[in-house]
């Protein structure tokens, strides 16, 4: 861990002095009892407000974190941003950025990739585009918060505190700044999902919807950071292209209709659905070595034979993967993501916990 920069404990005082007055800065220092050169001013402020940890303050109430860490970010920020990193930041294909960079430097022999020139060119392109920006209100309705990952914070808040849906609704509105209309719609869609699929990973012991299975909740809180990171990237990917919103909505509709809570999987009923699911997971960062396929039903079926030829290591089972009567024979392929070190795509059950929030957002 880096040692605190000299004087970094007075960030809050400096901000107060800059935007308010020196006298206010003195009063704040006195109230918070911050020693000279104390590096944990944010922690002191959270304690003064009666919050258990600084995470509540920083995630919900404090909106100047970028100012507090600006000096450190500037010092650590590399002078040249790689194409891979820039493509992640802008939700653009790396090859597209590479081609744009080459066009911009065509007249300068030997010039390396200029990330700033690429960013400026993209900004000018956006400024000159007369097409109204596409937002989630246009493409996905108004059923989710502006930041999709915030929904998980409300779910974990309810799970950890064994709170009611009404209390979760209040937290969405008062704690996360979601409008009443969006909060009501969010709760309604989530209820629909749980009642139909029994996906109970976020349901507390006193759930009014289902009798929760304790084992389904193992690791829910621990995997929160990775889940939020994934969902935020899915949101950026979805809003980066008009077709992506429709693709996500179709995938989530099929997932919700077929997912089995005790053994969740993305279930495909034909090769077109399978190809689309694979394409989306790959676009979001899944590696082919992570993709686990199982063939269910009559293995002599034409389309299952074609899938087996493409993925010869796939497991074959006679029992169905989708939700429903196990005596009914259905030809389908179940898809899941295996664990892989440093992968940014959730694996196993964690993937389906992320899909709970994405289903709400896609509605």
Q: Which spans of ≥5 residues are poorly predicted at pLDDT below 50? A: 1-9, 129-144
How does the major sheet shape up?
4 strands, mixed
Cα shape? globular
Percent in strands: under 5%
Helix content: 40-55%
Question: Which class of secondary structure composition applies to the elements?
Answer: mainly alpha
| CA radius of gyration | 24 Å
Number of helices: 18
H/E element sequence: HHHHHHHHHHHHHHHEHEHEEH
Strand order across the biggest sheet?
A: 1-4-2-3
Terminal CA distance reads 42 Å
According to DSSP, the number of beta strands is 4
User: What would the average pLDDT be, to the nearest integer?
Assistant: 81
Structure summarized in a few sentences:
This protein is mainly alpha-helical and 363 residues long. The chain has helices at 11-19, 22-32, 41-48, 54-61, 65-68, 70-76, 83-90, 94-104, 115-127, 136-139, 150-161, 165-175, 180-197, 224-239, 242-258, 271-283, 302-310, 349-362, and strands at residues 266-268, 291-296, 315-317, 332-337.
């Amino acid at each position: 861990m880096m040692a605190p920069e000299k004087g970094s404990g007075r960030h809050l005082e400096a901000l107060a002095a800059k935007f308010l007055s020196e006298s206010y800065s003195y009063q704040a220092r006195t109230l918070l009892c911050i020693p000279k050169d104390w590096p944990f001013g944010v922690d002191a402020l959270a304690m003064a407000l009666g919050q258990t940890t600084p995470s509540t303050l920083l995630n919900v109430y404090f909106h100047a974190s970028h100012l507090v860490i600006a000096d450190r970010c500037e010092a650590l920020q590399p002078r040249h941003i790689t194409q891979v990193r820039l493509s992640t930041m802008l939700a653009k294909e790396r090859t597209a950025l590479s081609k744009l960079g080459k066009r911009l430097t065509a007249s300068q022999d030997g010039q390396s990739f200029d990330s700033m020139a690429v960013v400026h060119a993209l900004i000018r392109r956006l400024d000159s585009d007369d097409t109204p920006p596409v937002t989630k209100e246009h493409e996905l309705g108004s059923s989710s918060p502006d930041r999709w990952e915030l929904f998980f914070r409300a779910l974990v808040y309810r799970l950890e505190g064994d709170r009611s849906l009404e209390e979760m609704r209040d937290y969405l509105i008062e704690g996360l700044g979601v409008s009443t209309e969006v909060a009501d719609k969010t709760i309604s869609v989530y209820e629909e999902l749980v009642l139909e699929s029994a996906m109970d990973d976020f349901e507390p012991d006193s759930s009014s919807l289902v009798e929760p299975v304790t084992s389904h909740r193992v690791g829910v809180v621990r995997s929160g950071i990775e889940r939020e990171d994934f969902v935020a990237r899915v949101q950026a990917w979805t809003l980066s292209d008009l077709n992506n919103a429709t693709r996500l909505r179709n995938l989530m509709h099929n997932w919700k209709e077929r997912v089995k809570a005790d053994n969740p999987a993305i279930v495909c009923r034909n090769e077109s659905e399978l190809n689309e699911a694979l394409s989306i997971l790959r676009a979001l960062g899944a590696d082919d070595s992570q993709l686990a396929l199982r063939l269910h039903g009559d293995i002599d079926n034409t389309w299952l034979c074609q899938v087996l030829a493409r993925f010869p290591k796939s497991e074959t089972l006679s029992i169905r993967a989708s939700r429903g009567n196990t005596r009914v024979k259905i030809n389908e392929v179940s898809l899941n993501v295996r664990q892989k070190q440093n992968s940014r795509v959730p694996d196993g059950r964690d993937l389906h916990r992320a899909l709970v929030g994405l289903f709400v957002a896609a509605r």
